[in-house]
Amino acid sequence: MNMLVAVWIPYVAYRYGFGPAENGLTLAAFGLMTALGQGLVVPWLVPRLGERQAVVLGLVVSALSLVLYGLASAPWMLFVVLAVTTLGAVDEPALQALISRSVRPDEQGAVQGALATIGSLMGVVGPVAGTYLFSRFTGSQAVVELPGAPFFAGAFCVALGLGIAYRALRRLAPRPSR
């Protein structure tokens, strides 16, 4: 997510010629859809799917959305992908619930601290990697003209995470939701 936000403005400016008004519109739409995802989709969908399936669905949708952002050849496509991306909001809350129930109460602080640390690290690494990739794959000095490269790399990372999560979820003993 941090990479997407860091690369968004240069990406849409480069690819579609967006200026401040269009940037503001897409970022507002992104914020609105994120709020709808967290406020409406997560509480409605996670109980119906179950946490394990919600994690898998969220990661699959997130990876697919990143690929589609990178492939979007017209600005209107961004808004279609954005609507689909909202379903990706289910993975993080479901995963945190599963993780918190898989450890003892006296381990909660350490586990939540580790999750926060990983999130903070990715908040630094993602934007740096994304903007670097964007700079290497756009403009006259581009290795290959591929402005969607940061999104494709992000999708690859999410797919790796999906593989890891899938293996971990298979080993995790089923427990009823709280």
Structure summary, number of beta strands: 0
How much is the average pLDDT? 90
Looking at the structure, the CATH topology is: Growth Hormone, Chain: A
- What order do the SSEs take from the amino end to the carboxyl end, as H and E? HHHHHHH
* Helix and strand composition category: mainly alpha
CATH architecture: Up-down Bundle
> What is the number of helical segments per DSSP (H or I, 4+ residues)?
7
Note the main sheet.
none
Organism: Calidithermus roseus
Keywords: Membrane, Transmembrane, Transmembrane helix
Domain Major facilitator superfamily (MFS) profile: 1-173
GO cellular component, one term: membrane
Record keyword descriptors for this entry.
mainly alpha, Growth Hormone, Chain: A, membrane, 7 helices, 178 residues
Give a quick precis of the structure.
One of its GO terms (molecular function) is transmembrane transporter activity. The chain is 79% helix and 0% strand.
